[in-house]
Amino acid sequence: MYNILLIEDDRPLNKAISVYFKKEKFYVLSSFSGQEALDILFQNNLDLIILDINLPDLSGFDLIEQIKIINSNIPILILSACDLDSAILHGFNLGAEDYVTKPFNIEILHKKINVILKRNTKNTFYKDDHLFFDKNTSKLVIDNKEIKLTPLEFKLLSLFLENQNQIILKETIIEKIWDSNENYVDEHTLLVNISRLRNKIEDDKHHYIKTVYGLGYRWCHDE
């Protein structure tokens, strides 16, 4: 199930879009202002953001810039009544994946969203004889027993699975896994959390997180 944040201050339209995508098995979080959207963004793992340009408290373009600072990886689709070429180009220049003008066909919007999600989907699912993890549902199962993860452990495991068999520098990991309160994670905190994650997912026969000395870490269970 994909998590979508819908930022639209027109309440009837917001509700109509939400109802449609919930029926299509999406998990939809609704927001009616820019600040409310930022609050939701800090508290949730999102797969896609749909936003209107004309919001009551700030410009949708300004909101995109703030979103990209917080998490540059979340794809954004602009949904707006403004059909000026300059606005559309500005949206793309800020990093939007697509720009849909109102009025629109909900089924076409759905198709566009599916394309964006498919294009941006990384390795969010992992399964072997010992470990099952689905980032979209935050579910981790070890030997048929569900295991709880802290927010930092969840971010670490997600990052490793998105970059399987690739060396991830310690500096890159620290940059990516700021804690849930957006506090800086130092190298000691990183080491502690990797150790805790290893204790939860590894045993004598299953080793996943390899230390690459002097560089960082690598997820390579197949070795």
Automatic annotation (TrEMBL):
Signal sequence interval, chain numbering: none
Entry keywords, A to Z: DNA-binding, Phosphoprotein, Transcription, Transcription regulation
Domain OmpR/PhoB-type as annotated: residue spans: 122-221
Molecular function as annotated in GO: phosphorelay response regulator activity; transcription cis-regulatory region binding
InterPro entries, per database record: CheY-like_superfamily (IPR011006), OmpR/PhoB-type_DNA-bd (IPR001867), Sig_transdc_resp-reg_receiver (IPR001789), WalR-like (IPR039420), WH-like_DNA-bd_sf (IPR036388)
GO biological process: regulation of DNA-templated transcription
Xref: SUPFAM superfamilies: CheY-like (SSF52172)
GO cellular component: cytosol; protein-DNA complex
Keyword S-adenosyl-L-methionine: no
DNA-binding residues (ranges): 122-221
Response regulatory domain mapped to chain residues: 3-117
List of residues that carry 4-aspartylphosphate: D52
Entries under PANTHER family matching the protein: ALKALINE PHOSPHATASE SYNTHESIS TRANSCRIPTIONAL REGULATORY PROTEIN PHOP, REGULATOR OF RPOS
Name of protein: DNA-binding response regulator
Originating species: Faecalibacillus intestinalis
